[in-house]
Specification:
The protein is 23% helix and 20% strand. It has 401 residues and is α/β, with parallel strands linked by helices. It folds into three domains: 1-113, Alpha-Beta Horseshoe (Leucine-rich repeat, LRR (right-handed beta-alpha superhelix)), CATH 3.80.10.10; 119-258, Leucine-rich repeat, LRR (right-handed beta-alpha superhelix) (Alpha-Beta Horseshoe), CATH 3.80.10; 263-401, no CATH class. A hairpin with a 2-residue loop joins strand 25 and strand 26. The protein has helices at residues 22-27, 264-276, 282-287, 312-356, 371-381, 385-394, and strands at 10-13, 30-33, 39-40, 52-54, 61-62, 75-77, 84-85, 90-91, 98-100, 107-108, 113-114, 120-123, 129-130, 143-146, 152-153, 166-169, 175-176, 189-192, 198-199, 212-214, 221-222, 235-237, 246-247, 260-262, 292-295, 298-302, 367-368, 396-397. The radius of gyration is 31 Å and the shape is elongated.
Length: 401
């Protein structure tokens, strides 16, 4: 008999153990919750042929495997009063297409949802924890919205979500745990925001649609095989702040398309020097460094001939340090020249004031020191009273107005 032709059998849930026998579990198609219910007991409706569940405002917790294997259930709307969804609460509800999680929810237990037809999910800002495998093997889910608030994405939380195309990790998340996005084969856009501190073992393993990854400067640990088997990954952006980060082996194992690492901040510093026109030859010196190249305005460190299984991070850090030292040398030379020019102008102003008795005194001698000079002076002002006094004597404008 077609499901649409089956008679509706409604059951009113009053709380506690509903004590349903096998025939009742098979026959019930709709359950209505009494307004007094605050908790759905563990395993209350396992294997029921439910097509509709109406949850009451005032409900606070859905227990362990409460609706497990309700294979005909297609949608669920959680009241704002629900704060906790227990382990496996909707596990095996394979036809579940729509889930609405309202503000107020705090915890999704281990394996909360497992449905091959669930297409999207939005986690409200009140959620602080996603349990292990909460959305594991939701193969139709193409959209996940994670709001600011929760702090970590647990083990295999989105494992095997093969239709997921993009994900943005909120700034409040500090930890992406083991295998969180493993086998997300269509994941092509990944945004890892500042605030993230740890990427776990195999967190993004076998995500072959990823081509570009940018790692935030707040990272303090990247565990083994974090991006292994991302076969189309070409460019990884690293930040100078990562130099103290613990990076384990085989992070990019079998990333066969990986070409280079990019450094945005260092690239910007290098381009400032090149475009200033003060110093020629720095580009040639950069090109002469092994593994280092300039591509347009981007500084790249090539992975060619680098052992990506173990020593790559040591090699990349060493090359980056050489580039930064070279850039700092040229910045210091440029700043020194500008400082000399600033002092020369100050002397002219002072002489003009003395010769013409111009009103205004010290303010008339005030000049603005160029930006690169400010950076160098400010490094020493706190510990060098003589330099500070000299700046005051000349009225050099080393502080922003």
């Amino acid at each position: 008999m077609n499901n649409d032709d089956e008679p509706e059998v409604m059951f009113e849930y009053m709380g506690g153990d509903p004590r349903l026998n096998l025939d009742e579990r098979i026959s019930i198609t709709r359950v209505q919750f009494h307004p007094s219910v605050t908790v759905v007991n563990d395993r209350s409706f396992v294997c029921c042929r439910l097509r509709e569940v109406v949850l009451n405002e005032g409900l606070q917790k859905i227990g362990y495997k409460a609706f497990q294997n309700c294979e005909l259930l297609q949608s669920i709307n959680l009241p704002s009063t629900v704060t906790e969804i227990g382990e496996g609460a909707f596990d095996g509800c394979y036809n579940l297409r729509k889930v609405v999680l309202n503000d107020g929810l705090q915890t999704l237990g281990r394996g909360s949802f497992r449905s091959i037809l669930l297409r999207e999910i939005t986690l409200p800002s009140s959620v602080i924890e996603i349990g292990r495998g909460a959305f594991m093997d939701c193969r139709s889910m193409s959209k996940v919205v994670l709001n600011e608030g929760f702090t970590h994405i647990s083990v295999k939380a989105f494992h095997g979500c093969t239709s997921l195309e993009s994900i943005s990790i909120p700034t409040t998340v500090t930890n992406i745990q083991h295998g969180a996005f493993i086998n997300c084969r269509n994941l092509s856009k990944l945004t890892l925001n500042e605030g993230l501190k740890q990427i776990g073992v195999e967190a993004f393993k076998n995500c072959p649609s990823l081509e570009v990854v940018s790692l935030p400067s707040t990272l303090r640990q990247i565990q083994r095989n974090a991006f292994s088997q991302c076969s189309n990954l070409r460019v990884v952006t690293l930040h100078e702040g990562l130099k103290g980060t613990m990076i384990e082996k085989n992070i990019f194992q079998n990333c066969t398309s990986l070409e280079s690492f990019k450094f945005d901040h260092t690239s910007a510093r290098l381009n400032d020097i090149i475009h200033s026109g003060y110093w020629v030859g720095i580009e040639r010196k950069i090109d002469n460094m092994r593994h280092v190249e300039l591509s347009g305005s981007e500084l790249l460190i090539s992975v060619a001939d680098i052992d990506m299984s173990s020593t790559w991070w040591v090699t990349v850090k060493e090359r980056l340090d050489r580039v930064i030292n070279l850039i700092t040398y040229y910045e210091t030379k440029a700043a020194t020249s500008l400082f000399e020019l600033a002092l020369w102008k100050a002397k002219i102003k002072i002489n003009q004031v003395e010769d013409t008795n111009t009103q205004g005194g010290r303010d008339a001698c005030r000049i603005e020191v160029p930006g690169p000079v400010k950076d160098i002076i400010l490094q020493y002002l706190a510990n060098d009273d003589d330099l500070f006094a000299g700046c005051c004597l000349l009225n050099l404008d080393v502080f922003d107005p």
